Predict the 3D structure of the following.
Amino acid sequence: METRIAVVSIIVEDTDKAEAMNAIIHEYKDYIIGRMGIPYKKHKISVISIVMDAPNDVISAFSGKIGMLPDVTTKTAYSRMLTADKEDKTK
């Protein structure tokens, strides 16, 4: 299976959505390489970047689920490089 590196950028405008968002992130933990979150208290928002190594459909599903949360916005940047995934992350 081919995978791609992607960065999912998330802006959370309502911190009450954190629990639902973290549940989705936990669902995809096997594909997540790293995560950085920055609370911006001046504007009462959080900015989060999540780096993934996953098939395109997994990255899309993850970003879509996060983006469907009210007051949460996502954008995804994909690398052009495709890699062969040597391990099955579903086990």
Notes: The chain has one domain: 2-81. The longest strand covers residues 72-84. The radius of gyration is 13 Å.
